Amino acid sequence: MTFNGRCVALCAALCAVMLVGACATVSPVADGPDADALTGRLAVRVEAGEGTPARAVSAAFDLRGNATTGRLNLATPLGSVLAQARWAPGSVMLATPQGETQFPDLDALTREVLGESLPVAALFDWLRGRPWPGAASTATMAPAEPGFEQLGWVVNLARFDEAWVAARRDSAPAVTVRARMDRP
Fold first, then answer.
1. How far apart, in Å, are the Cα atoms of 170 and each of 45, 77, 130, 151?
2. pLDDT of residue 79
3. CA–CA dist 98, 81 (Å, integer)
4. Which residues, in sequence order, are bridge partners of residue 100?
5. Domains with residue ranges and CATH for the chain
6. Mean per-residue pLDDT, 11-26
7. Coil/strand/helix, residue 28
8. How far is Cα 184 from Cα 181, in angstroms, rounded to an integer?
9. pLDDT digit string (tens) for 24-36?
10. Which pLDDT score, from 0 to 100, does residue 29 have?
11. Statement: the pTM of the whole predicted model exceeds 0.85
12. C-alpha to C-alpha distance for 163 and 183, rounded to whole angstroms
């Protein structure tokens, strides 16, 4: 899979390459009326080694379910679904216009696409402005950066009232995830 193909896959597990143009799209899967959804724009940046450019991807996202069972659609600004990740216990499937790929878990999907594993289980809570209950967390003390630290990441909630959440991991390679949620 090419780097751009892997970026599309990542956003399907967290982040994706923004593709524009008339290409094949993935058919979205409908959800029930009570599906818990988060929608908005998502951007991920992975710093590369010296002399190598950083990898950055962004896309519109529609995240439904939870860390155990769910779906993530990534789309162009015009709404064409570029990639879809679906997961359930023991099964993670990524569908792109190039076909479907199976992964053992969401960590494996993000590691394959970005070269780094992202804390997908924690992101469901982080995007809602709270620590994930599955790991210890500490409140950040910097007034300019309200939020918390968890799993080696700093989650910045300074603009949470504006529906913005930013998370960064400073250990090499540094990774930044930014999301702006749509308001209901």
1. 12, 30, 20, 12
2. 84
3. 13
4. 95
5. 3-21+36-181 (2.50.20)
6. 34
7. coil
8. 9
9. 334 444 444 335 7
10. 44
11. no
12. 7
